[in-house]
Design a protein that fits this description.
about 300 residues, Rhopdopsin 7-helix transmembrane proteins, three-stranded mixed beta sheet, globular, mainly alpha
Length: about 300
């Protein structure tokens, strides 16, 4: 990355959400409210799951890690965007830009794999209930979470490897509120056509493999649920609907943005905001606040805090 730093560009200008001063203040209040809700909501879920022994199950262990990744995914760019609403010139250093790219792909790739792990957990619970305890043991759950983080970092490493020899000599205007890899690559004064194809293939493999695994798991679950009509299967059907909703909300913007990564669409900014701000807030709402086990645990935690 030092070669890029020495090539003439030491900072990038972020052209994301701009407008009159009054509109900037509105943006600040709006996104600050969402950001605080993301952090507090997901932190509450993690704290609730840790404090209540009833929730010490594989499903909630994976959910707590999803909340942790959501906090990280929303933080890597949102806090910078919020601060920039008070700045006349919205800039970020070359190193800061590379850091944003790092965290975006590390956390994004990790969340993809974690959603696959959660789908696998539901597949075992619904399709192989008698073997659930043996299959989803502590060692297996820990391994799934560690694998999610490792795969996210490896995906990030493969993406950044493409950028090692790029030269940046201007322009330095990033048409987003954070440094997105595919936008930054287009600013290079090096011919990046072949590089863009390789990056697209790498990300496409990551997204499609995750999507195929999710589709396979949920198809098997759907077949099992439709063949049974017990009360337990009714609860499983509700859980399945929640999982599918989260997958659509997460993969929908990703597929649109990275399906045409080297185009320039006005909707890209909206989808980037949805991907980094709204989805991390919707996940706890869908998974936790509609759950009959999490809500009582939260009330119990509140009662304990009040009594102490």
């Amino acid at each position: 990355m030092e070669q890029g730093t020495n090539s003439g560009v030491t900072e990038f200008e972020l052209h994301g959400l701009s407008g009159p001063r009054e509109l900037q203040l509105f943006y600040f209040a709006f996104f600050m409210l969402f950001y605080l809700s993301i952090v507090l909501g997901n932190f509450l879920i993690v704290l609730t799951i840790i404090s209540d022994s009833v929730l010490h199950t594989p499903m909630y262990f994976l959910l707590s890690n999803l909340s942790l990744i959501d906090m990280c995914l929303s933080t890597f760019a949102t806090h910078k965007m919020i601060v920039d609403f008070f700045m006349e010139h919205k800039t970020i250093s070359f190193e800061g830009c590379m850091a944003q790219i790092f965290f975006q792909h590390a956390f994004g790739g990790g969340e993809m794999m974690l959603l696959v792990a959660m789908a696998y957990d539901r597949y075992v619970a619904i399709c192989r209930p008698l073997h659930y305890a043996a299959i989803m043991c502590v060692h297996k759950c820990t391994g799934l979470v560690v694998d999610s983080w490792v795969i996210g970092v490896l995906h990030l490493g493969s993406q950044l490897t493409f950028m090692v020899n790029l030269l940046f000599c201007g322009p330095n205007k990033v048409d987003s509120f954070f440094c997105d890899l595919y936008i930054v690559v287009k600013l290079s004064c090096t011919d990046t056509y072949v590089l863009q194809i390789l990056m697209l293939a790498d990300s496409g493999l990551m997204v499609m493999s995750s999507f195929v695994l999710l589709l396979t798991s949920y198809s098997a679950i759907l077949v099992t649920v439709r063949c049974c009509s017990s009360a337990g299967m009714a609860n499983a059907r509700g859980t399945l609907n929640a999982h599918v909703t989260v997958v659509i909300l997460f993969f929908g913007p990703c597929i649109f943005i990275y399906g045409w990564p080297f185009g320039n669409f006005p909707a890209d900014k909206v989808l980037s905001i949805f991907y980094t701000v709204f989805t991390p807030l919707l996940n706890p709402l869908i998974y936790a606040l509609r759950n009959n086990e999490v809500i009582p645990a939260m009330r119990k935690l509140r009662s304990q805090q009040i009594s102490s």
